[in-house]
Design a protein that fits this description.
homodimer, about 220 residues, alpha/beta, Spore Coat Polysaccharide Biosynthesis Protein SpsA, Chain A, seven-stranded mixed β-sheet, 11 strands, globular
Amino acid sequence: MNVGVLLAAGKGERMGSPVPKQFLEIGGKMLFEYPLKAFLESDAIDAVLVVTLKGWLGTVKEKVRSPKVVDVVEGGKTRSESVRRALEYLEKMRPEYVVLHDAARPFLRKETLERVLSEAKRTGAATAALKSVDTMVWKTESSLRYVPRDGMYRIQTPQAFSFELLKRAHAEGGDWNDDTEPVQALGVEVTLVEGDPFCFKVTYEEDLLLVEMLAKEWR
Amino acid sequence: MNVGVLLAAGKGERMGSPVPKQFLEIGGKMLFEYPLKAFLESDAIDAVLVVTLKGWLGTVKEKVRSPKVVDVVEGGKTRSESVRRALEYLEKMRPEYVVLHDAARPFLRKETLERVLSEAKRTGAATAALKSVDTMVWKTESSLRYVPRDGMYRIQTPQAFSFELLKRAHAEGGDWNDDTEPVQALGVEVTLVEGDPFCFKVTYEEDLLLVEMLAKEWR
């Protein structure tokens, strides 16, 4: 059994909006509903668990009416805590693989999540990632430090792992921006799978116009 | 006098298309025509120089019929060589400021280029940049090295410089992915200006669907 976990428990404090970004309504749908649709439509995903903010549990449950969604549960204070809550919940289901996706990346394609899952089945751990094409700098107080671009990747979600591996990675607690980092800390190699330029993370208010335009064209 | 330089001399070898990406026709226009429009419409820009590939000089000249475009010239083998050809051409015009933009970033807004130019007028050197929101990794043969995200920026174009400063930065030759790097090597601080998520670089074939969708909505 493969379970999709939709992480929709972020507060989105960089957005400057009172409504967390995953609940912004754009193109007639809340943003979290876009990637949810990809999970629901994929035959590779047997069940979906949604992790969200306490105050939004009711709203999300109302929007999510597919029997494929096994539950909507409350997340933790950090992304990693939310992942651990999902893992605890899934304990009784004992899935073979879990596919995690951030609801702040609305334009998820079914093909991308299936590509990542299928690679994780081969190697145990995989993530969508894109080669970095921009010049990257670290800004210090007085200067810019240029970071070599070769071999640099931007990690996206979806990320897929064997359930047992992800549990081990989270056994000691800790906080990370994604789940490949604690998995790799176990000495496990994480495979990078071709990501998708559509699957960008909505972070700032400036991103919303882009989301609006794409929502119009997104089937 | 402020001159806009549109760099359209790249071969786009990562695209896998026989036609360099700036000449792909999407939404009834070649990609280089999108940012050109922003240059033409901005009152802050007095003249525009287009640098392009030898084999495409005729096509570009045909498309570019505005008297604001002073010329279409042949670029060099590398991005930096193309910039130096532009600087040589501009010598006789002696502009105060130049605004450089990569034609591979089609969705340039007039407001962005004006923001960058206006900051360069204050400090001498400015570039559009976006905070990095994805987890970044360097991929080595056997592992991923996680790069701290705090303080990390993705450098975009437009980039604006005082003409004299940019000339000094290029006086000794050299090749860079952008023009802030040789400017900073002179000990000059480069200001980062809020970039634009629309202003991404078209690099891979996978980016084209995104371009097609946006072109439909782009005014």
